[in-house]
């Protein structure tokens, strides 16, 4: 998931002054399942190279409930864990250190992607991130196998929140969306992870394809505000936008609404919960904001920093 960083900073500046304090609200919500789902975004993007096994290991180390990741379909119909539908020169390079160009993953085989080093270049947006030189991209099958091995050591079972990614310009055809979704569902079934996986997407076509292929897999509708919507919600308005996304999620029979955190108020959570829909906002990298959301009664929190979520989780369990 991605969102313009402008609102991340602007919203955090205004929130402490203008947005309702969930803890003091007359509406008191609690998670539908009775406990908070702590999710490491792209594994642990703030700490290790995103969507790589070292990032997932980091999330496992901090005992996240759920590993959140992105998937893209390659030319040879492999599901690779990667955020963008194109190769990303900001975070990946050739093995010899030379730069790469943006290329659609639809035009590349998984073998061609394997020559990339996606661990040596630190993401400049995350100064705490530690590089892991030589890190390669992995398929969804690789991921499940590695998790299985890690679970034996950690003595903990993990849940999965897997996003389907498509070109930002909306050019993906219905057939591509369906093919990607069906292959992903098949991989989940093969890994025997049906009961602990959610498939999420900004492309709402994904959800009915999941429900058709395997209705036992949970679905999550992702929502990001425009500049205008984000600004209005930052200064305390935007209830119409909130109502719209709740109605959209209900029409799609989604199990989860996963909104940018600005959407979340006690009233918003209550409305979702009244329809038995969980609320799991993204991407929350500020301790004060995590606690505000917990006060709203959210069902989970997605963060680039599993260490931050662990700190909050531990402090709230005392």
UniProtKB/TrEMBL annotation:
It holds the Pfam family GDPD. Gene3D superfamilies: Phosphatidylinositol (PI) phosphodiesterase. It comes from the Bacteria. Residues 36-313 form the GP-PDE domain. Coiled coil: none annotated. Keywords: Signal. Residues 1-25 form the signal peptide. The keyword DNA-binding does not apply. The keyword Signal applies. GO terms for molecular function: phosphoric diester hydrolase activity. GO terms for biological process: lipid metabolic process. PANTHER family: GLYCEROPHOSPHODIESTER PHOSPHODIESTERASE, GLYCEROPHOSPHORYL DIESTER PHOSPHODIESTERASE. This is Glycerophosphodiester phosphodiesterase. It comes from Leptospira ilyithenensis.
């Amino acid at each position: 998931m991605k969102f313009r960083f402008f609102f991340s900073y602007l919203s955090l500046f205004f929130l402490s002054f203008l947005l309702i304090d969930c803890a003091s609200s007359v509406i008191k919500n609690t998670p539908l399942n009775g406990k908070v789902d702590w999710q490491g975004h792209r594994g642990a993007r703030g700490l290790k190279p995103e969507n790589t096994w070292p990032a997932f290991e980091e999330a496992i180390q901090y005992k996240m409930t759920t590993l959140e990741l992105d998937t893209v379909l390659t030319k040879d119909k492999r599901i690779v864990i990667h955020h963008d539908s194109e190769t990303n020169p900001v975070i990946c390079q050739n093995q010899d250190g030379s730069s790469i160009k943006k290329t659609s993953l639809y035009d590349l085989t998984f073998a061609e992607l394997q020559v990339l080093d996606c661990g040596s270049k630190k993401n400049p947006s995350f100064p705490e991130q530690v590089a892991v030189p030589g890190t390669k991209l992995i398929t969804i099958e690789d991921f499940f196998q590695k998790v299985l091995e890690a679970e034996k050591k950690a003595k903990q079972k993990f849940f999965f929140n897997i996003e389907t990614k498509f070109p930002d310009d909306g050019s993906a055809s219905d057939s591509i969306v369906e093919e990607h979704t069906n292959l992903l569902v098949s991989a989940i079934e093969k890994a025997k992870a049906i009961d602990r996986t959610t498939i999420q997407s900004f492309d709402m076509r994904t959800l009915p394809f999941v429900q058709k292929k395997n209705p036992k897999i949970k679905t999550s509708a992702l929502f990001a505000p425009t500049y205008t919507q984000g600004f209005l919600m930052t200064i305390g308005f935007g209830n119409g936008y909130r109502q719209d996304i709740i109605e959209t999620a209900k029409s799609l029979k989604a199990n989860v609404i996963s909104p940018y955190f600005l959407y979340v108020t006690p009233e918003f959570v209550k409305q979702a919960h009244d329809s038995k829909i969980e609320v799991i906002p993204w991407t929350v990298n500020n301790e004060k904001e995590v606690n505000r959301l917990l006060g709203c009664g959210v069902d989970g929190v997605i963060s680039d920093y599993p260490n931050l979520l662990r700190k909050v989780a531990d402090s709230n369990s005392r």
